[in-house]
Give the backbone structure.
Amino acid sequence: MTKTALITGATSGIGHATAYEFAKHGIKLVLCGRRSSRLDTIQKALEKHTDVHTLNFDVRDKRGTFEAIDSLPEQFKKIDILINNAGNAHGLDPIQTGRIDDWDAMMDINVKGLLYVSKAIIPQMTARQSGHIINIGSSAGKEVYPKGNVYCASKHAVLAITEGMRIDLNPFGIKVSAINPGLVETEFSKVRFKGDAKADAVYKGFKALQAEDIADVIYFTVTRPAHVNIADVLVFPTAQASSTIVKKEF
Ligand code: NDP
Ligand code: 8X3
């Protein structure tokens, strides 16, 4: 039977590539993000392949998140696969000079936003005793790097929440997976450095992961047999050995 996936952060990068990968395989899509014109464009492009519904909300907005998910039309209400992907880094500063607004953004989006969306979807999964939640963590959730402080904390939280979900949802037969990428060339660094030229240097001198590489891993994860759960994956570009060790050639 055709499955339906809800993807947060579908307007860019990993979420966008996952939407395209899923559409290719006929998975029905609920695509979420704040930039509505991008959602419209993606919907038009993917409707050739599958049914697509878009939800325009900010995951920081608790009420807006629940209202958006409640508003799903009947044919999109049953979510089989939840991809908690929306998130970003904001800033790269030592803890003593970090901006509180950046800290708020990362904790509110990466951690609390993920919880709100999950809270809105989990009851239908427990009721049906089936479903698959994929949380997009990061290598930053496994290892803290200089100036990464709060972003790393937010991704460590994603990993802890993933493990907690897997334990608590175990009696319901719900799969919970964490996919943790290293450096992926998306809009991520543009957001982190607020459009500053520093962003351009991040992926120079080596071949970074592309969003499509992570979409491949996500599609693989959601297509395993019922008895197989890919619990936790760490994916680096070949040039990367850890958060701080990247083989660059100039
Ligand atoms: P992008 O910046 O390309 O995409 C981020 C997505 O998140 C956008 O679609 C954006 O949509 C959405 N988003 C951001 N803030 C909000 C918000 N407040 N409410 C709703 N949606 C929001 O980055 P990536 O694709 O790289 O990032 C996706 C995930 O992957 C993130 O969780 C990130 O932490 C993680 N990751 C990224 C890595 C990388 O190196 N790029 C490595 C490891 C993990 P919109 O602005 O339209 O709302
Ligand atoms: C994104 C990877 O190394 O920029 O989560 O934190 S990194």
